[in-house]
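hey can u run this one w/ zinc ion bound, need the structure tokens asap thx
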Amino acid sequence: MKIEEIKQKIVNDIESATNLKELDEVKIKYTSKKGIITELQQEIRNIPNEDKKEYGMKVNEVRNLFNNEFNFKKENLEKDALNKKLESETIDISLPATEIKTGSPSIVESVIEDTENFFISMGYDVVDGPEIELDKYNFEMLNLPKEHPARDAQDTFYLKDDTLLLRSQTSPVQIREMLSKKGKEPVRMICPGKTYRRENTDMTHEQEFAQIEGLVIDKNISLSDLKGTFNAFVKHLFGSQVEARFRPSYYPFTEPSVEMDMSCPNCDGSGCSMCKPKGWITICGGGMVHPNVLRACGYDPDKWQGFAFGAAAERIAMLKYGINDIRVFHQTDLRETKNFDRKENN
Ligand SMILES: [Zn+2]
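ok here u go:
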């Protein structure tokens, strides 16, 4: 093959390589041990001495041509490859985004927060207390001495011995607050928090639930103050059309004691499946603080009076959101959470 033909072939071969792999094959064809240019260089042995110089120059030209063409082509192919890669990685912002699932607030926590805001606006403190409590604070100082039959209704879980227990109500927080506020009266507080009972669980009973209790200790406090407070509370929760009513009841820690009903927000008191079908729904219990409780905390019942009330946050949430099984609050079923979410948004 003549030198000029080889040159032309180099240009053609390099030109027709469409990617870096093909270009590498061209390189092997010309510069490997048995490559065309390598053979041209070896050929110099057979050239007569007087022609060697000229031949050598021509072979150099071929080699330079190859290197120049090869480098130029390689650079272009690399650029193309990079562009293709960038093109394939381009983000199409018109595509719909990946859905990120969001959580929703715990329905019980929402009820508690709402309740806290309501009572804070009326000048109450929000107070916290331990969930592992002394029998003394959970029962004894609340006029429930050991062996009192009313303890059965609040049987709980005891730790170590019978002096330490999981609190069955948040009332011990009231005792702690009355003790610490002694001399700094009045006491106006709510104490939402977890409580525990030894229950067989069913649709309306759980071993763990959140109680919302409130307490006021001041001078000249009467049952009508409790009724006014309860009336405002249920109207805040369920709307201004809801009415409040008291029925006589019994609790060891209050005297007199009352069941606190509201007219059914679902049927306005005419009777429906939600109020079964009485037209009224009990959501709180309470009454005037028993003189024995006042005395136990160092308050003179002739000088100080007070009222106390309590409700389960889950019960309020069930009524508010139409939930009929208390156990859903401790299950992790997202369908229920979504359901609450939707109801809240409506
Ligand atoms: Zn009803």
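The chain has a mean pLDDT of 91. anyway lmk if its weird
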